[in-house]
Amino acid sequence: MDVKANADVAAGFDKEDRVKVVAEWLSKQDWPAGTRVQFSGSDDDEKETQAFLPKAGAAALFIMFLILVTQFNSFFQAIITLMTVVLAVAGVLIGMTVTGQKFSMIMTGTGVVALAGIVVNNAIVLIDTFNRMRSDGATTKDAAIKTAAQRLRPILLTTLTTIAGLIPMATQVNLNFFEQTISVGGITSIWWVQLSTAIIFGLAFSTILTLVLIPVLLVFPTNLAALFTSRRGKDAVDELRAKLRRTRRAANDDYQDGKNYPALPEAAE
Fold first, then answer.
1. Which of 19, 30, 108, 269 is paired with 201 by a 20 to 30 Å CA distance?
2. Cα(203)–Cα(121) distance, rounded to whole angstroms?
3. pLDDT of the residue at 40
4. Would you place residue 267 in the very low, low, confident or very high pLDDT band (cuts 50, 70, 90)?
5. What is the distance between the alpha carbons of residues 61 and 77, in angstroms, rounded to a whole number?
6. Residue 83: which of 223, 216, 206, 222 has the closest Cα?
7. In the chain, where does DSSP find H-type helix?
8. What confidence score (pLDDT) does residue 53 get?
9. Residues contacting 190, CB < 8 A, separation 6+
10. Which residues, including other chains, have CB under 8 Å from residue 124's CB and lie 6 or more apart?
11. How far apart are CA 172 and CA 186, in angstroms?
12. Distances 170 to 65, 94, 114, 155 between C-alpha atoms, Å
């Protein structure tokens, strides 16, 4: 025998919290053998989405990685580009905290997957411009500085226009141009709040950090190589000076022992 019970969450209560309370209460009850309790509806859909979205996100990142490696011919630059996705996720979490929203696996998770395809565009533009300037003969430092300066305006404009287009959705403002009316809230508008909030905060946070971190990381290998090269050069000079000192002491000892060798001058410091 199957028994179904429908229930709606009262105003002021969270659906996920109520489901946890009911599930905890059901687990403490003494049910007859063979009794099985299952939550369906939105809770069942959320579990399916929770199982699907991580796989979809991992597959999307892997495909993007292959495309970026083919495009840039560099694992390092491909990893730098995908790093913007991590920054976007951090921005999403900050946005959820600031607005007091909970992380919804369906809408917020969908927003994170959508961000993975949006935020990498800024990094691609920066790295492509950097590579083009390097091929024209610019030094690594000059290429990074010019890239950040030239692409600052277009990246900020595209980011601001995207955020501006999502603000009405995040604030539940409905603009009806045909009837020339503006309404706030609605039956379905609340569904899109978490998705739009995730994209707004993730895109804004990742864009700001991308404009700073990408040029810095592009110069990092060159600076690291120069650091080790200068250190090896300094070690070679120190070793040469030590050899000159040992040779000078040996020659002076031979001279003092009666061997007719002129004393060597002091090694240059």
1. 19
2. 11
3. 65
4. very low
5. 14
6. 206
7. 15-27, 42-72, 75-99, 107-118, 120-135, 140-170, 193-256
8. 74
9. 172
10. 68, 71, 81
11. 7
12. 31, 15, 16, 22
Cβ-proximal residues to 247 (8 Å cutoff; 6+ apart), any chain: 264
- As a whole number of angstroms, the distance between CA 70 and CA 88 comes to 24
In a domain, 235, yes or no: no
Nearest to 110 by CA among 195, 16, 50, 48: 195
- Enclosing domain of residue 110: 47-222
Higher pLDDT, 131 or 224: 131
Within its chain, how far is the Cα of 178 from the centroid?
A: 41
Residue 236 has a pLDDT of: 61
In the chain, the number of structural domains is 1
What region does 36 belong to: left with phi over 0, alpha with psi -120 to 50, or beta?
A: beta
The stretch 239-245 carries a mean pLDDT of 67
- Residue 175: beta bridge partners? 182
- Assign residue 56 the CATH number of its domain: 1.20.1640.10
Please tell me the distance from the alpha carbon of residue 162 to that of residue 172, in angstroms, as a whole number: 16
Task: Rounding to the nearest 10 degrees, give the CA dihedral for residues 249, 252, 258, 259.
Answer: 90
User: Both tokens of residue 160?
Assistant: 């601001």
> Which value, in Å, is the radius of gyration of the alpha carbons in the chain?
32
Predicted confidence at residue 157, as pLDDT, reads 92
Q: Kindly tell me the sign of the dihedral angle through the C-alpha atoms of 255, 259, 260, 261.
A: negative
Residue 182 lies in a domain: yes
Comparison of pLDDT for 94 and 190, the residue scoring more: 94
